[in-house]
Design goal:
58 residues, mainly alpha, single chain
Amino acid sequence: MNAYRNFFSKITEINARYGKSRIEMSGAVRFSLMALRVYLIALVALMIYKFVQIAVQG
């Protein structure tokens, strides 16, 4: 149990250290990254939907 706690505390520490970006991003870069996130989420959602459709039919 202590190993899990240490693992998650280390992850929390890393996230806190790198949570804020050190470089400046333009609006176009921010928009592009957001569009990529939306695109990837949509692809994962479509894959899950297709998997459920195949599982229900089979």
